[in-house]
Amino acid sequence: MSTGTLLAIIIPVVVVVALLAVGITLFVSRRRRLRERFGPEYERTVADADSRLAGERELRSREKRHDSLEIKPLPSSSRERYSRDWVGVQEEFVDRPEAAVHDADRLVSSLMHERGYPTEDYEQQLRDLSVEHSRTLEHYRAAHEVDALGTQHKATTEQLRGAMVHYRALFDELLSDGGQARHAPA
User: Do the beta carbons of residue 151 and residue 102 sit within 8 Å?
Assistant: First the structure.
């Protein structure tokens, strides 16, 4: 074989191998980034999806939707008001635990709404929150389940107490997450 023929074979093979290496590296780094960003929500979403790729596609879709929302920090006056309201909900727990848990749910929803999260649909709330608050999302799920039990008068006092703790985790994160205001892309 001549040198020209060998080069005509070797160069395309090297290019294909290099492209495969770059593709695999991008694929692995994108997966790692999603895992880091979504934490436990990554595994939950992938497990609920038809495949890992479908789950990852769902997570990227959540990121795109979240980027289109106008999530904003709270002014200090609002943070103070929410803090006072939370103290009131905690005090209410002593005499009316079921009502207090329900009020905690409403307070968290109100806080989410004021920050710029849509709050009409619980499942959409979870998807929207998962982008920046994946670490506290399980708290929200657990608290919401107990709130549902509480409205049916089926929750124990210990479950209700736990729900308050769970709501508090997300509440604190949303309240203190003045973070960066997000604006919809132009």
Answer: yes
